[in-house]
Amino acid sequence: MTPLLEVSGLHVAVDGAEILRGVDLVVGQGEIHALMGPNGSGKSTLANTVLGNPAYQVTAGTVRLRGSDVTTWAPDVRAKAGMFLAFQYPEEISGVSVTQFLRQAVSARVGEERSALEIRLSMTQWMDRLGMDPAFAERHLNEGFSGGEKKRNEILQMALLQPDLAVLDETDSGLDIDALAVVAKGVQSVRQDRPAMGVLVVTHYTKILELLRPDVVHVMVDGRLVERGGSELAQRLERQGYEAWRR
């Protein structure tokens, strides 16, 4: 079966400095993969490159979605094809409500206009599932949001956009245990509706992995994937850190 996501021999530079040094990664349909590593190891670089951030220059290798080479595709084209990135630091957009943003995003994703009523109904259902105040829908996107609200909003976007592949770039960063549980529950709720959706979780911490139970854990050090295993690998990292893989 063709993998959902296949990263092959990926080398990536930022401002002329090589960050990723030959990354190979395969995510199958319905799988949850976790990517762990120390600060500066290249985890967020991989997440941004997979989604086509133009600040990250691919110098070698490919990124494929369901067998199609998307390495040169623009971010919006990848999003329409079913790829989604939950940002570590979501941007504020003044003057644009959450509802307006999601109506435009969903319409672009499905290739036809969606009514405000249709979007509001879907939002209301998902905000209830995510424990969000309905008034949230009229607030300007991420403006004045707490860290937890920003992360819940990312999961709300994922729920409405219905991606085939979701990349969560340190979505658990800065969350207390209650907010973390809500985010993890939201991811699992989306996966219940879309069991074939693949998820790549970029994280420093094991707590969200205890809630999401990944199929595969990858370790990245100095721009390379140096180990892979099951959930026991995450527990080993919690106890021992990354020294065993440093050169």
Helix content: 25-40%
In spatial order, strands of the major sheet run: 6-9-10-3-11-12
Q: Write out the CATH superfamily name.
A: P-loop containing nucleotide triphosphate hydrolases
CATH architecture classification name:
3-Layer(aba) Sandwich
Order of helices and strands: EEEHEEHEEHHEHEHEHEEH
Give the strand tally: 12
Q: What is the count of structural domains?
A: 1
The fraction of residues in strands falls at 25-35%
Structure description:
By secondary structure, the protein is α/β, with parallel strands linked by helices. It has a single domain (5-96, 142-245), classed as P-loop containing nucleotide triphosphate hydrolases (Rossmann fold). Helices cover 36% and strands 28% of the residues. The chain is built from eight helices and twelve strands. The mean pLDDT is 90. Strands 6-9-10-3-11-12 form a six-stranded mixed sheet, with helices on both faces. The protein has helices spanning 43-50, 75-80, 98-110, 116-129, 147-161, 177-193, 207-212, 231-240; strands at residues 5-14, 17-27, 32-36, 57-65, 68-69, 83-86, 93-97, 140-141, 165-169, 198-202, 216-221, 224-229.
